[in-house]
Structure formats: structure tokens, C-alpha cells
Amino acid sequence: MNPVNDISAGVDPDDLENNTSANPHIRDVIAQGMARRLFLKSGVGAMAVAGLGGLSACGGGGGGSGAPVVTPPATSLPEAPVEVRLGFTPVAKSLADQLVVADGYTATVVYATGDSIDPLVPDYTDDGNNANFARRAGDHHDGIHFFGLSAGGAPAPTAADRALLVMNHENIAGTVMFMHPAGQTTPRPEAEAIKEIQAHGVSVIELRKTAGRYGYVRNSTFNRRVTASTTMELRGPVRGSAFVRTRFSAAGTQTRGTINNCGHGHTPWGTYLAAEENWAGYFRRRNTDDVNRTPKEIAGLKRYGMGNSSGNNAWATVTPADPTSTEFSRWLAEVNTAAPADGTGDFRFVHNTFGYIVEIDPYDPASTPVKRTALGRRANEGAWNSRPKPGQPLAFYMGCDSRGEYVYKFVTAKAWNPADADRADRMTVGNEYMDSGTLFAARFNADGTGTWVKLDLSNPDVAAGVPASALNPAGYTFAGLADICVHSRLAADAAGATRMDRPEWTSVNPANGEVYITMTENPDRGATTTNSSNNIANPDVDPANPRYWRDTRLDNANIQRGNVNGHIVRIREDADNAGATTFRWDIFLFGAQARPDTGIDATNWAQNVNISGLSDMNDLSKPDGCWFSPTTGILWIETDDNTMTDRSNAMLLAAVPGTLGDGGPRAVVNRANGSPDTAVTTDKTVNTFVGRPMTEATFRRFLVAPKGAEITGLTESPDGRALFVNIQHPGENTASANIGNPAQFESHWPGNGAGIAAPYGPGGATARPRSATVVITRNDGGLIGT
Known about the structure:
Layout: H1 26-41, H2 43-52, E1 100-101, E2 105-112, E3 141-148, E4 162-169, H3 190-198, E5 201-210, E6 213-216, E7 224-226, E8 231-235, E9 254-256, E10 261-266, E11 272-276, H4 295-303, E12 357-360, E13 370-372, E14 380-385, E15 393-400, E16 403-405, E17 407-415, H5 426-434, E18 437-444, E19 449-454, H6 460-464, H7 481-486, H8 488-495, E20 500-501, E21 503-508, E22 515-519, E23 567-573, E24 582-590, H9 602-608, E25 623-628, E26 635-639, E27 651-655, E28 664-670, E29 684-690, E30 699-704, E31 710-716, E32 723-728, E33 772-778
Helix pairs in contact: 1-2
């Protein structure tokens, strides 16, 4: 996701690096060298060399791209592939302010920002005067899941006509101006700040299908908003520790609110998982606070991007009418020297209560959400569970959405018992599976294998801690498991995990258990000495992140370098065991334009940038979300793009997933002028493993968003005949100064009705834009995408 602050002058944390580690470790460099020798010794390696004119690690300038089909060593037999077929006509790219969906389909809005979920709360108006967002739809609809309901209101996983729709409301950045009559006011009024705090979090709404059409039930007793003020329990290793003691919870057992919920997940026992992503930017902390902090505290704060910040939306500056209220002072993560040193008199440690996976029971509106600290703390992008297998542990796969961060998994200590899927005490089941287990981070080896490195003190690298460096003079030594869970990024640094290109959504193929992880982008990939966005040395290209290139855009006015279009990594656990400590991997998809802009070498582009062979009907930039249909097996891929926007708005595409190893080794030649590092003067070749080439039969564009929006969050009715898609922040690039001039709004969707069954809400052609959930159905009633 790509929020932009309106009040704070800060920059989105996922667009910067906070990783000062020198990963990958020297052992990975050695492994790459060994893999290179094995590659060259093999017959296919020799053939590839013959076609490439050499595989020098640096230099050469070759342009070929032999791609023999070779699979890394298998540790288990692959399952027979599930037949997945795409049956719609692909959609062309679009720059229009409308939703464009494939022919033969209809999109209808069912829930948009500001919608009332309570008969006592008035309808949304198109003027910014709506209050009580604790009982309205929040903003920036994101991760979403469909929980079936029986006619009597009990959980019913196969029910398609009645359900609870649960979704994240990630942010308000870029669109917050539309929530107020004349945009945000400075200094911040209490009423505005309360509205903004309430617009974050999660919605639970009842959905019913009547006369063939879905709509939400405004007076349902299930309807609920979980916001940035809702009381939450802390459980797992961090609960009660010194890291999370605050004025609100001196015992360190509770916190208030969940913030910046992006990706999501769900559990086999019927609960929803909301992932806290870019929470760090919400807290005010000035550099003057450093004098009151220990070197270890400062190292932890900086690793999560909490340097000098006024805090998103400046909530910490609000003066409440009730002087005893801490609703706004809790956003000030600074030491009050007059308060107790243990943190119980201020909010110096409040930031340590954010950055977790939050479990919510959608079926019980009175239940208290729980932050599952055993899964670690980071800028979370979802938590997708492995295929449940009786007698084996479950795994939850997570990305950390920032450039140069890591892929994680949590393996439960308890083995899966299918009887737990039907228990009514769902949050107790969550305690049993998610409060104890083992946290791992991924190391991608050059030979197509990988290792899950353990993040606890039994790992000697973690026990040794993070060594001191110029950017982290104190280093970091872990005091125990609670410390590791709070500072998971530092633990992964110490363990030698592989720094990746913004790991975002994770998804698991229900047919074979393979895990897909989107790597959205990294324009700093290869900036090892200069020109990184925050002057931190970045990793060079490596087998799991093998590309950088030069892109000029159509107007040649904004030259971009690095990995500006992203890719998707695919892994398979050894022995298909979610608890395995080793895996195999390849790169399923490389984002790219079908053809380069003017002045770029088209031959090199086709061989070394557009590696997946994308066409005008399936090219994409910045894959963000990915989700498998359990009904059809289609892999849906969503984009959050500000790179290829000279050619198209963000989009949704459908893919036939294939299986790991269906492609083979590939040597990628990176032109020197594609590096963001001006010190690079020679080409670099990287050996990697790629999936099979894409064709329009296996990969097609299904939908294009209105202007300024991203496509994010997908779920489906269990019969596969209704696809729910979230359209986030249309019009986000509107200048705040233009709030009084609708003609200058970037978007007027969905009020303008463009591309949907009917205009939604008031305002018409001059409507304020709103995030919204649309339901897409086939006009003939068939399965979506087939």
C-alpha cells in the first residue's frame, strides 16, 4: 500500500528502508558461488552459457536468455495439477475514471466509505459532515473475507446467500480531505481527529442475497466496527512484559486500537486475521526524545522507522475537551521524565503494542480482539495459513512490507485437530494454536532451495544478536523470546534472512499447498553505495530478486531504475510439511510492461526485463495482493501501481498457477544503466529460477480500477459465483487545496456510476470519491473467471 500523509510531512515507511543489516550473510555468497559452479558443470548450464555468451558475475553485456526446463532437487513428488481454465475475454488497459470489468460480467457496489451500519446513524451525505464512524464504513477498504451464515445465524462455511463480510480499513491518507467539509483543519479539532481514528480498523457486516442480488443488512446485530480505539488483548510471549506497559495498561496486557490494517487472513476455526502494516508513522516521536532512551531502545525504534516524526494526521497534538482523556496523548511515543521509568505513567512504549496480527471473532460482536504477539511484530502484510493436515502443525505465512525486508512464517506448537474447526469457543482455539510456536524468517539460496531460519535463542546467530555498525552503534542483544517477538526485524537481521523487494501478500494454493508471495517493487535494489532513498546501503541483485532496469515512462520525464515493477515468488515446503525448515522456490511472475518505452533496448527488454513474456492484455506493474479461489483454483493478482500509470490504472488479473519447477533456470543480464547506484558501470548477470512463460491463455487482465485507486482485497462466495473486490482510495492524488473544487477531483467514483450497475450514493458526476466493495457476478450466473 502507498499512503501519503496530508498533515504529517513524513514519508510512507514502506517506501523507505529501515534495514541497516548487511544481509545476505557470507554463507549465502558462498552458496551462490557453489550454485554457479554446479550450473556451469551441468549440461543444461553449458547450453545456457552457449546461448548467453558467458555467465560472468559482472560485465559481459550479453543479451540472450536460454531457459531449459530444469527443476531444483525434489524432496517430494508433485501432486497432479488441478485443471484451471480462464474463460473470459481479457480487458485492455484503461486510464478512465471508471471500473472496467470483463465482458459478460456486472459489478455492483455493496458497501462504501461512510455507509451507515446502524438504523440510528443517518445515511452518508456527500459533504464531509458525517460523524460517528464507529458505526459507519471506514476508509480504504482492504483485506476481506466471506464467512457463511446459516438461516439461523450459525457459522456455515458453505452458505452462499447469507454471510458476514469482514474487511480491513487500512488508512485515510490521500482521501481524508473528503471526510471533512473543507478538508483537514490545523490545529487539529477533536471532532475531526475522532472521526479519522474511527475510520481505521475493521468492519463486520451482515450480507444477504435477495432476489439474486447481494446487499448488506443495516440493522443486523452482527454489524460491528473495530477501530483504532477498540480495546484489545495482548497474548503470547509479549503479554505482561516490560515492552508493553503503558498508562492505559500498567500490567502490559491490553492496548487500544488496531491501525493500518492491510492484508488479512482467516483461520481454520472461523476467525479473521487483520494485519497491522504501517503503524509506525502514526506516532509522534521527536529526536529530542533520544536523550531519555537507552541505546538499545533507540536501535529498536530506528529499525521500525520511528525517528523524528510529527505523526500521521497529527493526532498527538489534539487538545481534548476532557483533560483526563488519553485518546490523543497515546499517539505521543515519548518519555515523560516526570513519569515512572517503567512506562506505566506515559506512552513511551505504546508503539510496541502495534505491528501484530489481530484475531477477531466475526460471529461474536461482544468478543475482544486479540493481538497474537507470538507471530512477531513488523509491517505485516497478511497472515495466510497452510493447508490444514490432521496431526501436523499449521503455518502462517507473512510478508513485511518495506523495501529490503523479510518473509516470515509462524509454525504452531499444537498439531491440527479437525474437531477444532467446529468449536464455538473460537478465541480459545486461537489461544491454543497462536500463542505458542516457532517464528521463522526465509533465506533464499542460489540453488533454488531455501531455509527457514529460526528466530529464537536456540539459533546461535540470534543468541549472538545484531553486531554494532555505523548506523546501529549499539548493536542489539536479545533478552528473551518477548524481545525477539517485539523486535522480529532485528531477529531476522541476526539470523541472516534474505532481504526482499517489499514482501506483501501471501497466499497458499489450496490444490497443492504452494505459497505465493508478492514482491511489489524496490527502486533501491542494487543501490549498494549511493542513491538509495534514505542513504542506507541496499542489497545487490540476487537470485530471488534478480532484476533492475531503466524505465523512462511515455513522457520520458520520470526516469526510474531498480526493480520498479515487482515480481511474485513461489515456494514449496519440503515433504509438503508446513513445519519443514527447508523449501524450494522459483519466481512465478515478473511484473513488466509488454514493451519498453522509447529509447530502451527492446531486445534486452524482452530477454531480461519482461521475462514472463507478458503482452498488452496481461502486462502489469507492482503486484500487491494475491488470492486463490478455493472453487476454481484461479490465482487472482491485484496491483497497487504508481509506476505504469502512464499506461493504465491499477488492475486485477487472473492466472493459472501451474506448479513449482514448471519453468527452469534463467540467467538475467542487468544493464548497468538500470542500477540506481551511479557507481555501477558494468552489466551484472544473475542466475535464478523462473516459472513457465505466461500466455494470454494462462494470464489475463480481468478488471481495471478508476483513477487513483488500487485493487486490494478479494473474497468469494463459496459457490464461486460472486467475487467481492475492494477498490481502495480512488482520487487519492487530488490536491488537498482542491477540496472545494469538484472539477479538480481526480475521481468521482462510485457516485458517478462509471462501470458499475448503478451510481452509488449521492453526488453524481461531481461526487467525492469513496473506497468501496464491489460484488462481481457473471451475467449467465456461472463461475467467476472460467
